[in-house]
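INFO  loader      accepted 1 record
INFO  loader      residues=446
INFO  predictor   begin
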Amino acid sequence: MKLASLGPANRVPRAEDTHPLTWRLREDGEPVWLDEYRRTNGYQALRKALDELTPAATVQAVKDSGLKGRGGAGFPTGVKWSLMPADDTRNIRYLLCNADEMEPNTWKDRLLMEQLPHLLVEGMLISAHALRAGRGYIFLRGEYVDAARILNRALAEARDAGLLGRNILGSGFDFELFVHTGAGRYICGEETALINSLEGRRANPRAKPPFPASVGAWGRPTCVNNVETLCNVPAIILHGVDWYRSLARSGSDDMGTKLMGFSGRVRTPGLWELPFGISARELLETHAGGMRDGHKLKCWQPGGAGTGFLLPEHLDAAMHAGGIAAVGTRMGTGLALAVDASVSMVSLLRNMEEFFARESCGWCTPCRDGLPWSVKILRALEQGQGTPEDLQVLGELVEFLGPGKTFCAHAPGAVEPLGSALKYFRDEFKAGIAPSARARRGLAQT
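INFO  predictor   done
INFO  writer      dumping tokens
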């Protein structure tokens, strides 16, 4: 799929006032390098933060803005920052950028890193100053080869311009930033597994508490934020909290804008920066052009493979955390998938659960053993060799691997789409029961 940006038809006067993340995007898709970035107000927010704001004031501004994590969990960013210890005698602190974008059907951070690398660098500089962190790492998905090349060039440009290193812009603030490419593990999207991998350990999640804010990378206070989250910070500092909060539509419990997308058999699959609170129907029909000719919408996921399926009648739900929660699932990454009527839900779930089972770190028993078990059952149903008990077992796995019952959030995310598919499309699963098994149970073949 080709990454979509704000084309001429989408542009409005003063796009920087309404599209803080994407207004600098070039029409040719090439990266915005340092000189061009500076000509479009680049690093002005950093200068303001260094010259006019204390670290505490920056933290408070981000907290007041209502910015939440854009990686899928949606935790308030300013609150997360405020968990870093006030005592700065432990003077080694780390800021880590989670760029390990491996959620199936999610590609938003790639756009920012490949086309607006300095926006991420500036966001990390402001955030590091607020957190009093002296070193940062961009933990990048190893398959993002172009992003690694572009980010490393941007870092070199920033160092040459005195924007990284010692005494940045004459402020006395020192910060070093590096790109670290991972080995390709989905579990590294969990912040403590990311820290373990960065340290050269096996990518298993850690027990919490202690939380990374107290004991993180190499035992030091550490904050981990997503790419898109950090890219929101410069605009908040430059234009103010009230402006940022005004970008979302009325009634949204999330503030600002969000990179949202639609893939599947839609006319114009792509990625757009849109205000929180738009309806999923507007996202699908106006921006993605609706379903392709000859294809009918069967169901959709609002935000990556780890979110539950919804039905066409749920399209009027508002795209923000509360709006999607009201219809039974999570906003997730905000990149939706349209499933057309020709797709077998059993086959689709088998494919998804194979991914999640393969990517389990194996640390806890429910996830390590339960996800492969679900794959085995789904394969049997897909081949018409299932048993009546299989549906009961799948339902039990959804319950046993749910929130709070595993070591981290990997398994709950993996079984959320399975649970919703069983709820809405149970007959498709029943159709995979072998005729002989039906006869043994005295069930009429449907």
